[in-house]
Amino acid sequence: MDWAKVKLTADDFERGTINVAKGTTLDTQKDGDTWTSHWRTKNLVKIDKAINIPIKSGYKYYLCFYDSSGTYINNCSFRSYAETIKKATVPCMAMVITKNDESPMEQTEISNALPGYIWTAGQPEFGKLKDGSVYTKGK
Questions:
Q1: Residue 66's beta-bridge partner residues?
Q2: pTM across the whole model
Q3: CA-CA distance, 79 to 83, in Å (whole number)?
Q4: Are 46 and 95 in contact (CB under 8 A)?
Q5: Which residue in 2, 19, 54, 66 could disulfide with 116, CB within 3.0 to 4.6 Å?
Q6: What share of the chain is helix, strand, coil (3-state, %, to 5)?
Q7: Residue 2 — very low, low, confident or very high, per pLDDT cuts 50/70/90?
């Protein structure tokens, strides 16, 4: 299976976080539009069997997973390193991004924090970007 790549840009994010205790869909879980340090994806991002997140030093991300109907399944804790996550039955995710120290962050910083593509698909192969970040590519 070929890998698909999704480039999330600042336009894909809005100010706020995700409060999973508030509901069962991303829209009902959206929280804190006045947060100055957290930015969340506006919509769910489709993924397949795995996802690789590239992240630059100084930033961290939080993922929430949803089924094909957009119903919340589970989440993972904040991570500040590039990672491939294998979730064979998870078709969608939402992301929150912030600085490691959770200091105020402007929307324009998101593209710097996520320098590469988010890769989604089947069996990963590992490599490195020019800046040393880990990425995943298709066979």
A1: 72, 92
A2: 0.78
A3: 8
A4: no
A5: 54
A6: 10, 40, 45
A7: very low
